[in-house]
Amino acid sequence: MKRATSKSAVSQLRAPAEAAPAVARSGTLTDEAYRRLRTDIIGGTFKPGSPLRLEALKDRYGLSFSPLREALNRLHAERLVVSSALRGFRVSEFSLAEMRDAIETRVLIDVEGLRRSIARGDDDWEAAVVAAFHALSRCAARLAQLKRERTVEEDEELEGRHRDFHLSLVSQCGSRWLIDFSLQLYAQTERYRRPMMQSQSTTLPTRDIEAEHRAIMEAAIARNANSAAFLLEQHFRRTGTMIEEHLGKSGYIEEPVRSAAG
After folding, report:
1. Does 1.10.10.10 match the CATH number of domain 15-91?
2. Does the keyword Transcription feature in the UniProt annotation (predicted)?
3. pLDDT in tens for each of the 262 residues of the chain?
4. I need a surface site. Which of 8, 92, 100, 135 has the fewest CB within 10 A?
5. Which CATH number does the domain 96-249 belong to among 1.20.120.530, 1.10.10.10, 3.40.50.1580, 3.10.105.10?
């Protein structure tokens, strides 16, 4: 009886396993479409408000309509894409009100995540924060020495290091939901920050980003929760203010929407 049960269990496991390659391939293609579209939207390849037509996306990425449509629906859920029955999918427009809302919500989420990580994190968490800061600083310093414009790959490398640093700060908060929200809000603010950073050296005030990151890192590993939280909050809000200035100088006519603290 035991042998029969075991054989039956193996049969039940084998059936879905045999179908797994097709399912896995479909999921992989959708993930690829999602990743590439998301990178192009956040990086500015597709400008705010520009249409995302399936036929053009198929030609660009070499993927079929099904994974592209699924990827667009995922991006719609993340508010990076909008859709309508008549106009189809389009990249979400820039909005100062939306940007400020994302910044203020990020303050709520990431500051709480940092406080929890400081309370819960062990020596390995401290080491991860220090390592992420070091990797970001070295990457930024190396790219700053370039005598030419950065490539797309170099921009992605720097942004990845930056994202890793901020993720490390909240990584031991103990909440998968909080981390997911943090990453989504990071993407929302990144798409506003990317064009700003390209013109920062000539149109915006000088800002020592490395010093801000270092101060946050040092307060975090010193377990000074109040100081770390304050520094992170100010870091986010300075970014929001600079984005607002940049969008104003770039011809956006929407009235700035300032937070109570900003």
Report:
1. yes
2. yes
3. 433 333 333 333 333 333 333 333 445 899 999 999 998 998 888 988 999 999 999 999 999 999 999 999 999 998 899 998 778 899 999 888 999 999 999 999 999 999 999 999 999 999 999 999 999 999 999 999 999 888 888 888 999 999 999 999 999 999 999 999 999 999 889 888 887 766 544 455 678 999 999 999 999 999 999 999 999 999 999 999 988 888 777 665 454 444 443 3
4. 8
5. 1.20.120.530
